[in-house]
Each structure stands twice: as structure tokens, then as C-alpha cells.
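Box 3.1. Reading complex inputs
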Amino acid sequence: MKSSSNSDWMKGSLDLMVLSVLAGGSKYGYLLQQELQQASGGLVELQAGTMYPLLHRLESEEWIRSRWDETTGRRRKWYELTDAGRNRLTQQAREWQSYADCIRALLARVIDPVPRPA
Amino acid sequence: MTEPDFEELLRVVTQRLRLKEKERRELLDELRDHYEARKDALLAEGLSPEDAVRIALSDFGDAVELSGNFNQVTRLQHRRLLMRITTGTTIAAAALLLAVAAFLPQSHNAPLTAIVQAQTTPPVAAKSADASDPGTDGNAEVERRLERLIEVRLENVPLQDAVKYVGATVEVDILVSKSVIDNGWIPDEDVVLKLEYREIPARAVLELLLEERDLSFTIRDGVVRIVGAGQSNELAVYPVQDLALRVDAQHQDGGVAALRDRAPKQGNLRGGSAGTMAGSGMAGASGMAGAPGMGTGSAPGASLAGTANPLPLSTHSLAELITQTVASETWSTNGGSGTIMEYNGLLVVNQQPKVQAQIRKLLQMLRAAKAVELQKLQGGPSSA
């Protein structure tokens, strides 16, 4: 990842990021990496050395599945969400949203401590 | 074409991961595909080939980091498959142990364990008064838990994890002693390639995992400690006067008197007389001819044939019997670390706990066989 200041937060949500990119359709590793980078406005730069082990873990947990495609002349491994993975993504996205709302509300007071005019 | 540096990275990574051939090939294909795609994209952006290679390569980190990341995945995968406690009878344990024994490197040692196991219920109860250690409740409990049957499906699991999960499954604490770690005996890369049993005592799994690596375990203060094979030796003193006395020293004993009375009545002059001639300078003959005679109808001792004859043994031949039948390669005479000495009707044994347990069981069996034999002989004359 590019930024070190927020890398800890990102580590905790990498699964979710990868699953959400795969929710848009099946991808091979390189494509996934590029789409994640674009979707995050260049903020999330997931290294191959981190991404492939992560993909293999998600696959072993059966949130995603893979298949090999050899039609292009280059052997390429594609990943896609399983039903279980889609359910997990939906559930975690909800949890994440409510958590983020909570944090946002708390932090708003720090960033903007002055009471708004009535 | 991929660059030598990248190929070297792949070589190191796949070597460290110890994958199956198919897994290895797929991982190589996948990582190469990424590398090529990234490099092509960088070249298309106008970077020099050198820069493209350098950046594409840096995307993977170093070999240690990359294989470490993959190893974590493998561990997680196998953690789920690892083990499940099942319950079973001692008989089932014995049958399985027999099956396992066939795979143990010391094949001449294993059957004894299996036979002993089959005849001792429950196995932990075999820890008799012979044991020299204080036998704290904690240790006994750990021993009992290690006899639990577990299901094992290990594949490409680091040894350390495999050991840890045996402990977690049967709820015992397993400590790897510092000397073992210092010697690098359980490095992360030491992987258990394959171990699969539907039901097996946890103790047997530990033994299987550790033995081939020259490791052993000992139970102390309620904790299983993994130590180097020679380090686990403990000292035990076995009073064996009751087994060691020669027949002629037992003339006052009713059972032996019965034997003397009964032997000729068997109508087998050679075999019958041999049984009573242990004290008459024909020890060799008595040993050979006596055994089959004693063996008839003596089921518990049948599996040990001649060794079940408790009568003509001296402590010396008992020591010999033990070193030849119990874990023979572990004795100092065969290059191992175990020693056995006879002292005034006592056997002083310095050996691994596992071997000590086998000795205890063997002595128990000998006593059981003797008791059966004496009982039979005592009842013999009256029924004849």
C-alpha cells in the first residue's frame, strides 16, 4: 500500500476491498489490482506480494472461486465471488457503513468543535 | 521471457512453500502472468525495459516476505482441516495403534507397544507403583488426555503448528524447550508433508511427528515438553525381585512346588522336566523347552512367547529381555542413549519416558503371565 499512515486501517479492510471489486465481475489478479487502485482514486495500491496470498486465502474460505482460462494463449487465473462471498460482502458492507457513521459522528466534533449556529 | 531475478524469486518462494507439483505449477503461472502484464503495461507507458523489470519485480516484495504470506494462508487452510476430537474405546485405540505401528520406523518396537496397549485398560492405569516419578495428578491427567483419539488430516503444515494443534485438540499445554529452538529443530520451514488418520491417540501423533526428527517429549508439571530425543531421558528404578528369582529359590512357594509336582504328570518328560530344571544347570534347555510348555493356555503371554515365562529369569536376563524387545535401537549398546543396570534385584533404567512406559507395561505383562501360570499350577494337582 502506498500510504503508511493509514495502512493499519487498510489491512483490516483489504478483504472487503477485494470482494467489492470482484462484485463488479470476475477479474484476474493484475486487473483486480489496477481496478482497486483506480476505484480508490490511487489511494489503495495493493502489492502483488500481498494480493495473491490474500486471494488464495479468500478462495480457501470459499468467498471467491477461481478458474483457469487458456483461450487467450496466456494461461490466466480468474477469480469471481461465490454466493457465500456475496452474502458476506453485503453483510460486512452494512456493518462497515454503520461503524463508519459512528466514527464520523464522533470525529466531526473533533474536526469541527465550534457549535453550529442555530 | 521473464527475467532471471524474477525466476530466482519464484524458485526460492516455491521451494520454501513445499507445494504439490500441481499447486506449484499453478502458482508459477499465476505470478508470471501478473509479472508479464505489469511489465508490459509499464513498457507501454514508456518506461525503459530496466525500469519496467525493476518495478514489476518490486511488486512482489522479497522471497521471504512473499513465501511468508503464502505460508500464513496454507496454515489457515489446514487449521480448519486439522483435527477433531473423537471418542473411542481403548480397544479401538489399540487396533489403530497397531495400524500406526506398521508405519513407525522402529518396526520391532512398535508391535510391543500395540500388544501392550491392547492388554492394558485403560493405558494410563499402567503407570504403576514402579514409576519413579512423583506421579502428580497433573501429569496423570495429561497422560490421560494424550490417549484421546483424534482425527488428523495434516498436509503441508509446519511442524510447530501441527504440534500446537495436537495440544489444543486434547487441551494440553505443549512447550517447545529452549534448547530445541536454539538448535533450530522446529524451524518454520519444517513442514509435515502428509499425515492422515481417522482416529489415533494424540500421543501417537506426537510420536510420529517428533520421532523422525530426533525429537521426543516428556511430561513434567502437567506440561508436555518437546525436547531432543536424548534429553528426555529419565531415571527409573524397577524392583524386580519377584520376577527375577530363580525357581530353586522359590522352593517354599506353593506355586512352584505345584509346578514340580505337576510337571511329570503332563506326560511330556522333556518339556515337563525342563520346566523344573532351571536350577539344575540346564538353563539353556529349560529356556527353550519350557517356553512352549508354559505357553499353553496362557493367552496374555502368548504374544510374547518365551518372554512370558517368568520363572527362570535372572535380573540379568530380564535386562537383556528388555533391551532386546523394547525399543532396541534406543539403548547405548546400539548407539542410543538409554542405559540399564542391574543392582541387587533392582533394575535401574535411564531412558525416554516413552520407553519407560513400555518397560512398565512389559513388567506388568510378565507379572500377569506369572500370576496366571501360578494360579493354573496351584489348581492343577487337585483337578488332576
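In summary: The first strand of chain A starts at residue 27 and ends at 28.
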